[in-house]
Amino acid sequence: MPFDIGFSELLLVMILALLVLGPERLPKAMQTFGRWAGKAKRTVTNFNHQVNRELELDEMKKKLAQHEEMIKRQAEGTDLQKLRDEAERKIKAAEEAKQRAEESIKTSSQSLNDPKS
């Protein structure tokens, strides 16, 4: 039990409840108390499960970040890293060529539309 209530304390509470509430209202009061205790227990249990899931999720995110970092470190200096660097250089060169071509088209278009030519 959460409050470490012994049998003697529980018996004392039951006798006091019987004296205060009487035999007619005691069963209804015990039933109501049981419902409240059950709801409180379910709420605490759900809260604990939710906290545990959040902690597990955080732990999994940390492990994922560690694995990603480990993979990046292992990939450095390997053929995979070299291929990635080469691909990035080619993409950059292609973007620069595209930009030069667009500028060339723009200047050609302007010279064709220029009535002084």
From TrEMBL:
Tell me where it resides.
Cell membrane; Membrane
Q: Where is the composition biased (Polar residues)?
A: 106-117
Q: Keyword set for this entry?
A: Cell membrane, Membrane, Protein transport, Translocation, Transmembrane, Transmembrane helix, Transport
Primary localization = membrane
Q: Give the span(s) annotated as Disordered.
A: 91-117
UniProt lists compositionally biased (Basic and acidic residues) regions at 91-105
Q: What transmembrane ranges does the database entry give?
A: 6-22
Q: Which InterPro entries match?
A: TatA/B/E, TatB
* Protein's membrane topology: Single-pass membrane protein
Q: Which family does it belong to?
A: Belongs to the TatB family.
Q: Subunit composition?
A: The Tat system comprises two distinct complexes: a TatABC complex, containing multiple copies of TatA, TatB and TatC subunits, and a separate TatA complex, containing only TatA subunits. Substrates initially bind to the TatABC complex, which probably triggers association of the separate TatA complex to form the active translocon.
Per the entry, what this protein does is: Part of the twin-arginine translocation (Tat) system that transports large folded proteins containing a characteristic twin-arginine motif in their signal peptide across membranes. Together with TatC, TatB is part of a receptor directly interacting with Tat signal peptides. TatB may form an oligomeric binding site that transiently accommodates folded Tat precursor proteins before their translocation.
**Listed name of the protein:** Sec-independent protein translocase protein TatB
Organism taxonomic ancestry: Bacteria, Pseudomonadati, Pseudomonadota, Gammaproteobacteria, Kangiellales
| Gene that encodes it | tatB
